[in-house]
Every structure is written in C-alpha cells, then in structure tokens.
Amino acid sequence: MMKRYLYFMIMLMFLSFFSCNEDDIKVFDGQAQLYFDKFYMNALQPGTEGADSTVMSFFFYPDDTKTIEAEVVVNYSGLPLTADIPFGLKVISEGTTANEDEYDLDDQYVFHAKPLLEGQLDIQDTIKIRLNLSERLKKMEKGVRLFVELVPGEGIGLGQYERRRAVIISSYVAERPDWWKENGEVELTLLGKFSNTKYKLFVEHADPGMTMDEKMIEERPDLAIGLVLKFKEWLIANPGQKDEYGNDITVVI
After folding, report:
1. Does residue 18 belong to any structural domain of this protein?
2. Whole-prediction pTM value?
3. Which InterPro entries does the record cross-reference, listed alphabetically (predicted)?
C-alpha cells in the first residue's frame, strides 16, 4: 500500500511539473511570434473559432470622406518585449478584389513593446490600414476584399496558421439592418422601402446613436415611432431628398 501511495504521489508531482512547464513554454520558450487576433479561416481541429473579417464602410462617414482607416489587432507571443518589433504586410492576390488605388499599406508597421503580465499568453497592438474611396466602389453592393499576410522581421516567426492572414472588407454602402426587413413591420408601417441613402439620412438626422433595433421595435414601439417622426420632420424641413435610384425619400407614418 505504501509503495502504491508513493508511486501515486510521484506521478502527481511529475504531471504537475510537466503542466507548469508546458504553460511556461507557451510564453517563454523564445519562439517570438506575430499573428492577427481574428481568424481569417475557420480554426483547424480541435479549435472551434470561426473565420472573421474586419468590415469598414464609407456609409458611416461624411459624404466628402475619401479615406478611412481599418483598425486591425495584431498579437505577439514569446519572450517579454524589450524593444519595438518592425514588421510588414503583403497582399495576397488570390482572394483580393480591391484595386491598388483602393488601399494603402505602410512600408513598415510597428508592434510596440509592452510588458507581458503574469498569466498572459500574448499581448496586443493595433495597426491601421488605409482604405480609399473609388468611383467603382460606390456602385458595388458588397464592396471589395483586401487579403493581407504578416511579414515578420528577423528573429520573429509567424504564429497560428489560421491567424497569419487578415481579411478587410471595404464598402460604400451599409448592410441592410435586420430590423428593416423587406415587407416587414418597419417597411410597411414606419420607414417605407429601404435604400442606403434613406438609411444614412435616418441615422444622421434621427438616430445617430443607431439605437433602432428589433428589441426596441418589439418592446418600445413608442421610441421607434418617435425616431421615425423625428426623421419625417427633417424631411419636411428639407424637401426634395432623393435616394440612390432617384426616388423621393418618404416615410409611411
């Protein structure tokens, strides 16, 4: 019995030691790596994370805006940083639909040195990628796609395969909100037919906080009606508004 007990205790100590060292290796084994925070593709087994992209739209900016910036989060894991890390980005032509004049990449980006706090497996920094408005983008309902990959500097590796690349979507229009369904309550009794121009004017002049949603419509219809009436007042005070199809912008209520 004593031998079995000692054997059991030794095995517990061994497993505990191995577990601790395994955690340490993840952070302190010297394998300095960069990788994006979002997965550009679904995680490989046994991971469960889904593919994600950074979506940007000129819709939410003033009409004269020609350039917007997409903020993309980059992760670092490895030994604690003592100096900034320079790195680059390269465009992956397969999968990129954006023209060269529709984006600008810096020659070099910087991951700024930060302390790695106890228990952290990685630290984060944010870079900005410039997206430029083009005439063709104004006519593209689904926008364009920029596909980039990290290019680490000397002594730095690439991290998890599914996070070595990033997808940035640039568009001129906004996705139709779920609460403004075709032939739905909002279309039939409040705002009328959807158009991007109408939606933008509604956000700018009646609902800048974008508070209208399905929950409001269901639980507080008085608030939803109030927003539409506010928009109607603006339309009356500013007659002649046209949507992107040349139709008069009106509301049902």
Report:
1. no
2. 0.72
3. DUF4843
